[in-house]
Amino acid sequence: MLSGEQCRFFRMAGYLPVGQVSSHEEVAALKEEVSRLLGTPSRSGAAAPENHMMRAHAAGGDGVNDGHVRVALHLCHISDLFRDHALNANVASTVRRIFGEDPVVLTSLLFNKPPKVGQALTPHQDLPYYPYLGDDDLVTCWMALNEVDSSNGCLEYLPASHRSRITHRETGEQQTLEIDPDDIDMTRLVQIPLKPGEGVLHHGLTVHRSGANRSERPRMGVATLYVQASVPVTIDDFPYPALVPSPAASR
Ligand SMILES: O=C(O)CCC(=O)C(=O)O
Q: Which residues, including other chains, have CB under 8 Å from residue 88's CB and lie 6 or more apart?
């Protein structure tokens, strides 16, 4: 349960570290599921559809093109384990407190930065990717699957940036929208190191970025996107129907 102080911090800063979200056993099972969905050298092929995967591209941040999956989309809609993770009762209850009403799960995404070649993600707000949502309709829970810190590209937030929409520009096919770094104060970014299974919430307008993975360690995180249940999202807006946490879970 979220304390009043935590609620106030989220409202002021636009993000909030929430501690342990999943157990070490659950994290291990999710990592194994990632291998199944994305495929590994020792495993033939990926179980996830190719059109759900965004691969490293020569024009990406660091010019590295080994074809690895940078982002995998819609995991909670194609995997029982990721669906169970997205419906996590504690997170649903925390997000309910922030929204002041029941949340539903729009989708979940894996962000993957393999050792040495994992690329930086440029500053952006999430809401411009979902033009049918209003300013306060979206909260993300980002959970680390590996230990993340400044050397392998932990998340970085711009505090209090969730109070307005900032102009984004098109970048190309991988991450299509970004903020011109000259439009924000990059020196105010706050890094969020996390241990495996720990999570952080952010508002749909909080500016965030992450650095390249310069370390020898993997860096994966899963972002689960919650929308207020009263907000109509149709099949024309989004390809999968929202998942509904059980009422008891979100209380
Ligand atoms: O994991 C990352 O580097 C970026 C995550 C992100 O953009 C998000 O969760 O909205």
A: 21, 22, 141, 224, 249
Q: Is the pLDDT of residue 247 over 80?
A: no
Res. 59 pLDDT band, cuts 50 70 90: very low
Give me the CATH number covering residue 67.
2.60.120.620
Mutate to test the pocket of ligand 1, among 21, 111, 119, 175 (most ligand atoms within 8 A of CB): 111
111 lines ligand 1 (CB under 6 A): yes
Number of domains the chain contains: 1
The one-letter code for the residue type at 52 is H
pLDDT band (50, 70, 90) for residue 65: low
Give the position, in ligand 1's atom list, of the atom nearest the Cα of 208: 7
| C-alpha of residue 126 to centroid of ligand 1, in Å | 9
User: Does 211 reside within a domain?
Assistant: yes
Task: Give residue-wise pLDDT tens across range 165-204.
Answer: 999 999 876 658 999 999 999 999 999 999 999 999 999 9
| Rounded Cα–Cα distance for residues 149 and 146 (Å) | 10
Position 49 in a domain:
no
